From TrEMBL:
Keywords for this protein: Hydrolase, Manganese, Metal-binding
Gene: speB
Protein name: Agmatinase
Family affiliation: Belongs to the arginase family. Agmatinase subfamily.
Organism annotation: Candidatus Limousia pullorum
Cross-referenced NCBIfam families: agmatinase
Keyword Hydrolase assigned: yes
Amino acid sequence: MLNKNIETFMACDAEYEDAKTVLFGAPFDSTTSYRPGTRFGSRTIRQESFGVETYSPYQDKDMTDYSFFDSGDLELCFGSSEKALEDIEERTKTILEDGKRPFMMGGEHLVTLGAVRAVAKKYPDLHIIHFDAHADLREEYLGAQLSHAAVLKRCWELVGDDRIFQFGIRSGDREEFLWGKDHVFTNKFNFNGLKETVESLKGKPIYFTLDLDVLDPSVFPGTGTPEPGGVTFNELRDAVELVCSSLNIVGCDVNELSPPYDPSGISAAAACKIVREMLLALEQ
């Protein structure tokens, strides 16, 4: 039984027992390789959500018509990536054991590994859909295997070959792309082939991880590793709605908002709307 957070994401203030989807924040950025600040992402998404309507004209749904629960941010150890991942795994496990869907707000992308560890234990046939600018398939970064640059490689070690489907990828070492050809599905630059992938994965348990830097930095400058050539907001919105409304999503996350790099608040507003659209699309 989790306690309700004092400050919640928009309309995520239902009773825990009534909610099918449970949010929590993972404010961690200790392995960020370029510009830190994603530890403030989940808190900022909550704060900015009060300026965004609960109604989605895209889906003709309203957050107030459903029951969502926000359990707040974890207090994570910045001195130990493994300890932070253990705490994330434990929170995810608690939510799963209570028959609910975990929805994590990061934080840097390494936090995904903690959640996937818990989800993969419950669902041995787990598949992963991954939206990102970066492949995140390095064996290590500056000697660290627990890095946001290696998080999907660590997830692959849990789920195995042909279970990870990447879209929007436009950055990575040559070795990452060469290794990936034999082990994961990677669609570079855009969402081409997503509909076919969704059709092939229907009925399977899916973990969906969204790194917001898949967006073009002209739309989303507030991130630690901006990569020109990304997708538009509407392209991402359509893609997340397709994934969340069509598949058996047993866990998901949104990560890599770094508020200090966008004082205008545009990036935070985009993150809020994407989280809203995901939550509503999950309600079928």
